[in-house]
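Worked Example 4.2. Consider the chain below.
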Amino acid sequence: MKKLNVVIVKPSKYGFDGFVERFWKGFMPNASLPFFRSMIPDFIGDTKTFVSTIDEYVQTNLEYLNLLSIADGPTLLLLVGVQSHQFQRALDLAAYSRKNGCLVVIGGPHAMTCDTTMLQGYPGTSFSLAEAEAVLQEILVDASKGELKTVYGANQRWVTGVLNTPVLIPPSEEDLSHSIIRMAGLYPSRGCPKVCKFCSVIKIAGRRIRSQEIQTTVASFKALKAAGVKLVMVTSDNFNKIPNVTELLITLIEEDACIPFFCQCDAQVWSQPELLKLMALAKCFDIFIGVETFNPKTLSKQDKIQNRPEKYGEIVNLCREVGINTHFSNIIGFPDDTEESILKDIVALKKADPDQASFYVLCPIPGTVQYDEFMESGWIIEKNLDRFDTVSSVWQNPNGGLSFDDRTRLLFKCYKEFYTMPQAYRKIVRYAKRKGREGNLIHESLMTLAYASFSRYNAFMGKHPMSGGIWQKKLDHVSEYIHLRKSVFGYELVPLPKSLKLSEADEQCFKNKTAV
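Applying the procedure from the previous section yields the following structure tokens:
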């Protein structure tokens, strides 16, 4: 019987010091790994598959690199969910694996939205330009025959209609142990109809909201519940805009499939109080909302006119009434931002009083409309893709504005201004008064204090609290891999890419945002 080892890796990134970023425990698990694992059949024709999954961010020894060889038979390396700041690490893993005889496919946001032509054509290394449902089976068939095409999915980035995805195979016990809490990610739907300039979602997942079958999502929740998963991270954008979200929640409740979950909603959720009540009944305990800024003019210039800052406080109150926490995500360093305007936003944020807040530096993510505009204007100064991580400053308006140092300083100042002991105390009091609360008050209080302290400590140390996990481990350095990158792909530092143009079919799909 023939065999094929399939190694699925979510690459990490190189930090400022050149070390691969690794953590003893991760905050949130990677959702792509179990998704891809679930899509790989036990057999491809007469070839038996043996699958391994690796999240580099939480791998604290290098033994997994032994999987990236053909010592135990033909091996296919799938580098999945690769974002621009992880792309050079992905190339290094590809080069390392090719040296050891493996076949390699690089996929994810960067390959889907950026022109990788300059890196294509090397034997045994391919790029996936489309969603997994559109190309994965073709890739597996080709790999079982010992050869790969140069690219996959060049003519169709997104599948249309209902997402034909399998029931999720739960993460292994080992994978669950890498997170602070037993948590797994789940994709009930994909896509966003909005046109925000800075956001890569519409270029990665399209503007048409597509969902998988309700019973597939419910069965996945049940499988995770049976595996002892304690929290589910619903990774779909705009959970509140999924066309059949009400039916989904009711089915989860009726079939006793609910697990405490958190999700992302858009800032129009203030108009859906009944949905919030239903979400709470289905055990949603937290929603993440990209409020971005309290400045309407900035939102308008970014084509995010759906956000109404005067409604942000109402969102918090509506969620609080039904027992759902709110997490507001904020971006600092828009072209018109000043130190005064950012500090004014912090005052408004504290007045709205969400339970949590996170802050990021405006980053022109490769492939987005904003990236194209900034590149055309000559604003992007940073040449290293590793730094395009929404924490580092990579651009500068030649006509002025906040400097690199100003943005970094204000980023951490925002964390210190928001996470104070009075803020933590108010949250503990609210939780104590919450009707029908689940959990232990002492535990919740300690967790609240710990999170506030952790955020402030990292801000004082100049580290982003949402960097990926706790207790960083420095094991391997870019200097150990970069010679492979140059020998295989010809670059030590990959040039900044142009955005990848949509095919004619995809362009029509992009313009037609009608939900399916």
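The chain has two domains: 2-158+481-489, 182-418. The longest strand covers residues 2-10. Compare this with Example 4.1 before moving on.
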